[in-house]
Write a structure and sequence with these properties.
Blueprint (H helix, E strand, L loop, with lengths): L1 H8 E7 L1 H18 L7 H8 L3 H9 L6 H9 L10 E6 H23 L20 H8 L6 E5 L6 H14 L3 E6 L11 H16 L15 H14 L6 E6 L8 H17 L9 E7 L18 E4 L5 H11 L5 H11 L3 H12 L5 H11 L4 H12 L2 H12 L8 H9 L3 E4 L2 E4 L2 H14 L1
Parallel strand pairs: 3-6, 3-7, 4-5, 5-6
Antiparallel strand pairs: 1-2, 8-9
Helix pairs in contact: 9-10, 12-14, 17-19
Length: 455
């Protein structure tokens, strides 16, 4: 009997260290992006790939239940990793080693918490399981970026997941051997937006610098032929021509050009000319253009000189109920059907607002009931988010008046298209047919009170 008890207490085998867990997870995520269009491998898929049973894989992720060292090696080899000593530790007798195991579990749980539940103030990292796929969008952009001379247009209000999607698109492109360049138009100096020549020189310098190419523009810039042709010839002859691999050029926040109509028309016409060149010029066929913006253009563009009516259009919308349920599950939170409806009634399927709510719930800082009550009363965890919207509204008195009418109306309204586009770019509204409504009850309640005080 005593011998049997001793056998029960002994737990031999190995467990992943936090470093080993990180290495394995990064390798799995990279494989998911390349081989599975970014969709996560199921437990059954992992089992087939590693020749390890689903039950054993579950033991491996627990970080507390030992597995055979040979099993762990099989798992690492399946993802082209070499099992190193620092990636695992031995589980010894429970009584002799309880303190060491407890310390490892504490450290691992802290790393898991940091990994699984980062504060949601930035795009979802590539190695995070909190990224929710929105089929068929990921598959569409991965397939499209492999097409010569393609254009991908990604549109949605802020905090809807544009940057997170672009990060995965770039990671996929890099796996194909493509060069990826990302130019954020919000980082352009004001003077670049009032001088086309300065803007295009800045653009060429950024592209060349990110490619590690020659940036000496003075010898290659010809004022006699104009800045647009100089820019195009520089990109064609000194960047595209010399590159053996395709180049993915991401232009983020191009909405900024909408505030400068004359320059915007010239710049967008130039982009369109590059797309047209790709049909007949092999050098331009190497370019894959990704344009990222928050709203439809509200400047007049000739249909034949606009990049906004060609290429693959991607519009990121709110999460569906099923996608919200999946996000809740990945956070490890249990919500009843009633609680899920309450949360979605407050913020809808808005990815950014949902992430913030779930982060606070999983950290234990408040209950769902407290979160909703505080949000309705004074903005609660969303107060900074709402204050920023309030600042943006105050900067445009015409929008304030229209939004005041909208949040107090019992039914949706029809608004001036330019104002509607501006409100949508802020993420404050949604469309129901040809009518416009506040995006969620949080916005309706908060701004109804704020705007009432300024009436």
């Amino acid at each position: 009997m005593e011998l049997k008890q001793n056998r029960i207490k002994r737990k031999r085998g190995v467990v992943l260290t936090p470093k080993g867990l990180k290495q394995l997870q990064e390798a799995i995520i990279s494989s998911e992006i390349v081989e599975n269009q970014g969709d996560r491998f199921t437990l059954e898929k992992l089992s087939q790939r590693t020749n390890i049973s689903p039950k054993t894989i579950s033991r491996l992720w627990s970080l507390s239940k030992g597995v055979d060292q040979k099993t762990l090696k099989l798992c690492f080899n399946a993802f082209d990793l070499e099992l190193q000593d620092e990636y695992y530790s031995f589980v010894q007798d429970e009584e002799e080693n309880q303190a060491e195991i407890s310390e490892l579990l504490l450290e691992s749980s802290q790393i898991k918490e940091q990994y699984y539940w980062p504060y949601p103030d930035r795009p979802v990292p590539l190695d995070s399981p909190l990224y929710i796929e929105r089929p068929p969008i990921e598959e569409q952009v991965y397939r499209e970026v492999t097409q010569s001379g393609c254009v991908i247009r990604i549109r949605s209000p802020r905090q809807m997941g544009k940057t997170s999607l672009v990060m995965r698109l770039c990671a996929f492109a890099q796996k194909q051997g493509y060069h990826t360049l990302n130019i954020n138009c919000e980082q352009l100096d004001e003077r670049c937006l009032t001088d086309l020549n300065r803007l295009l020189r800045c653009l060429c310098l950024q592209i060349a610098t990110q490619l590690g190419a020659d940036t000496n523009l003075d010898d290659k810039w010809d004022d006699e032929i104009g800045c647009k042709l100089s820019c195009s010839l520089y990109i064609q002859n000194f960047l595209l021509k010399q590159s053996e691999n395709p180049i993915v050029l991401v232009l983020s926040e191009v909405d900024r050009f909408f505030e400068y109509p004359q320059l915007g028309r010239e710049f967008f016409a130039l982009l369109r000319s590059w797309c047209d060149e790709a049909r007949q010029n092999n050098h331009w066929r190497k370019l894959r253009l990704v344009v990222v913006y928050s709203t439809e253009q509200y400047i007049s563009l000739d249909i034949n000189h606009s990049p906004f009516n060609i290429g693959l259009p991607i519009r990121l919308r709110e999460f569906t109920v099923q996608q919200v349920e999946e996000l809740v599950r990945r956070y490890g939170i249990e919500l009843t059907s009633k609680e899920l409806k309450q949360l979605m009634s407050l913020v809808g399927g808005h990815p950014g607002l949902l992430q913030l709510a779930l982060f606070n719930l999983v950290s234990g800082s408040m209950t769902l009931k407290e979160l909703i009550a505080e949000a309705i009363a004074n903005g609660g965890i969303y107060r900074y988010h709402l204050w920023q919207h309030w600042v943006n509204l105050q900067a445009n008195p015409g929008l304030i008046q229209m939004y005041a009418e909208l949040v107090t109306a019992k039914q949706g309204m029809i608004l001036d298209p330019v104002c509607a586009y501006k409100l949508e770019s802020l993420g404050l509204i949604d469309f129901e047919g040809d009518r416009i409504v506040p995006r969620c009850e949080l916005y309706r309640n908060y701004f109804a009170k704020q705007l009432a005080t300024t009436a």
